[in-house]
Amino acid sequence: MSFSDRLLALLGVVPPFLLLWWVERLERRVLEPAPAWRYRVLAAGGFVSVPILIIGRGLSSVLLTLAEPLRSLYEAFIVASLLEESGKALCIFLLTRGALAPRTRYGALLYALHASMGFAVVENVVALLSTPDLESLTQRFVLRAYLAVPMHLATGGVLGYMIAKRRFDSGALGWPAGLALAIFVHGAFDALLYAVDRLPEEATTAQTVCATVAFVLPGLGVATLAFFARRLRALDAADERMDTRGRRGSTRADAPVSTRRRRTG
Question: Which domain holds residue 34?
Answer without folding.
Answer: 3-244
